[in-house]
Structure prediction request, 246 residues.
Amino acid sequence: MSKPYHLFISYASEDEAYATELAGSLRFLGITSWFAPLSLKVGDKLLDSINAGLMASEYGLLLLSTSYLAKRRTSYELDVLHRQHIEDQKRLFPLWHGVEKSQISEWNPGLSGIIALRSTEGLASISEKIADIIYQGCPTRGISPSYENPQWRFLQGCGELYANKEDGGAFNLFEAAEFPDSYFPLYVHNRPRTKKEIILAVASALYYRNPDVIPLTKKMQGQMKKLCKSYGFDLDAPGFDPAIYG
Prediction:
């Protein structure tokens, strides 16, 4: 892969839930997806972000629904992706989500000529078809395991991150749990994390006892358990399991 992302997913905010599930299904197959943060309002920063994502992805996926057909922002993304498709031979994956060919033909005749996927096929089937094209039909694909990702390892209590820049101070999960409230939210592994989420990650690391977890002294273990309990995660309570908290 020559660009940071395999796929740019263009979709309407009304289809956020489905788009998120699709991105997760693709990620399971090792495909990295980029799509605009929908919580942001349309403006220069969002436009810059969209443009960066469009340039940083090798393929484009259009989640075409009735909502998509009516959106101004998605129209901009479509224009750029379609131009990249024509000028740079960037491959597009139209995914029809509750729309028919007649609607697409009337809305954008150029798209109706591209063989499309349909959401009725199911996420697993759609993801496999996309993966087969992205991986160029190779029957065996090398997928990076999550435990090789340093940010994933941090959330498991198994590694350190730098604060804000490459020469920033190093910190681990247990140290982050004791950061002042003003240090939060903490951006880790693709999204902001609340202090409660970080402490839940601490509870999980202590509960599941992964042998790769950073060693803690008995005193530090006691401090962490006390902190977890103060946030409602009592590791000594009967039947406690961090998995029930998500």
User: Anything to note?
Assistant: Strands lie at 5-10, 33-34, 57-64, 92-96, 117-118, 160-162, 170-172, 186-188, 191-193. The chain is about 45% helix and 15% strand. Confidence is low (pLDDT under 50) at residues 37-44.
